[in-house]
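User: I'm preparing a small set of examples for a lab meeting where we compare how different chains pack in three dimensions. I only have the primary sequence for this one, and I'd like the structure in token form so I can line it up with the others. Please keep the answer compact; I'll paste it straight into my notes.
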Amino acid sequence: MKMQVSYATFIFCLIFSMSLQAQMLIDGELRFGDEWINHSQKYYKITVSEDGVYRVSQSELAAAGVFSGGAAPDGNQFRLYFHGEEIPIYVSTGGGFGASDFIEFYGKRNNGDLDVHLYEDASWQGNPEYSL
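Assistant: Understood. Below is the structure token output for the 132-residue chain.
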């Protein structure tokens, strides 16, 4: 009897999992959320707890290992992304990064914008200001 229950549970879970999807339907287009990633490049994560203007200095970038590959990249090579969209940044130099150089940007904290795709009806989302 126990074997039959386990087998039935396995079959139920298998059939149920076939209906699950990891994609998001945004403007009629199926997305996985990582289409913007170029896997031949390195990425560094900058976390912010509040919406606002932030400055990242050369020393902070160096401490994160951005310049560990030798020569500092040109300022015009930096890109910043939030939820897969490139956001505007101000870089203090267009050439190599010096000790006094920095990157400034308007950062937004993580919110529930992407979580809305988890719900059949968007009104079911508890609080759109906070991410799950």
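A couple of notes for your slides: The chain has a mean pLDDT of 80. DSSP finds two helices and seven strands in the chain.

User: Perfect, thanks.
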